[in-house]
Amino acid sequence: MQSSSRLNLVGSSPAFQHALKTIHRLAPVDATVLIGGESGTGKELAARALHYLGPRSDQPFIPVNCGALSDTLFESELFGHERGAFTDAKKSSQGLVGEAEGGTLFLDEIDTLTAKAQGALLRFLQDKSYRRVGGKGYSQADVRVLVASNADLGVLVQQQRFRQDLLYRLNVLCVTLPPLRERHGDALELANTFITRLGHQYRTPERKLHPDAIAFIEQYSWPGNVRELENVIHREFLMSDGDELRCEESRRRMAFATRDDVCARSFKDAKARAIAEFERRYVAELLAQAGGKITDAAKLAGKDRSAFGKLVKKYTIEADFGDFALN
Ligand SMILES: Nc1ncnc2c1ncn2[C@@H]1O[C@H](COP(=O)(O)OP(=O)(O)O)[C@@H](O)[C@H]1O
Ligand SMILES: [Mg+2]
């Protein structure tokens, strides 16, 4: 088994170990790696592992959320700008590529880049030369570029929302993180790790999971992946008394019923529960596909935004306007 405790990458399932093996193999290569996987599967953690296990580990690791960069500011954010290059440019700035010099630049949510930004990135990746906005000469960057995407870039190319030539350039070395539902046994291992970690953080006596909580963690599909599990454990840890976590609150919120519970209920009640469980999973899975954006998820569902938003609120699922995320 790959030893990655130093990097806090937890999981013994074959699916996760396969991804970990790829990470260990690609870390020393010092080339661009495309990291794929649903939201919350650990893409940023994987990017950090690629950096810290590689030759640039004592140099900066600079994560950038591409979704937060506007079309007009993309080049100046990335490459920097000279003083007076545009109205708001009171001072010159070195840009994120300059900050990452010698180290690694991690471009997260690359699927959100606009056409213009995709063009600028492709030019930069050809030979890593770049020019500050408003500047004259070109500089040569010494950075490793890692990129991540929740969305399938191949599908975006078909929909003409992502440049094929950029995908060809990015698609050479890849690692895909499996969704938690395909990582048998890992949810429980992760939950126990989080409980131990929280115990140290809050200096509380040792606590463990009640058998009902274990059954829930093992059977639930975790559409929000490790992030959702981490949030659930965090909330349960803070909200429950005693030395056992029962996860009652989460089981209720997720309308999750064990087999015994179902048999003990009337048909009407059991049906309502099943519908609620379906609704919750459906909404959470669509939101995960839409990168947490209500408007996009509503479109995928063929519902209007406010009706879909009501469902999101009903099940207190993490979204753009989510209010229960603990990290
Ligand atoms: N294998 C793992 N072991 C421990 N923690 C993990 C693992 N994968 C993800 N996490 C945790 O889950 C959360 C989401 O991970 P992140 O890397 O941000 O996911 P993504 O970028 O794919 O949305 C983070 O708090 C991260 O530390
Ligand atoms: Mg991320």
From TrEMBL:
Signal peptide: none annotated. This is Sigma-54 factor interaction domain-containing protein. The lineage of its organism: Bacteria, Pseudomonadati, Pseudomonadota, Betaproteobacteria, Neisseriales. Residues 9-238 form the Sigma-54 factor interaction domain. InterPro entries: AAA+_ATPase (IPR003593), AAA_lid_NorR (IPR058031), Homeodomain-like_sf (IPR009057), P-loop_NTPase (IPR027417), Sigma_54_int (IPR002078), Sigma_54_int_dom_ATP-bd_2 (IPR025943), Sigma_54_int_dom_CS (IPR025944). The keyword Kinase does not apply. PROSITE patterns: SIGMA54_INTERACT_2, SIGMA54_INTERACT_3, SIGMA54_INTERACT_4. Keywords: ATP-binding, DNA-binding, Nucleotide-binding, Transcription, Transcription regulation.
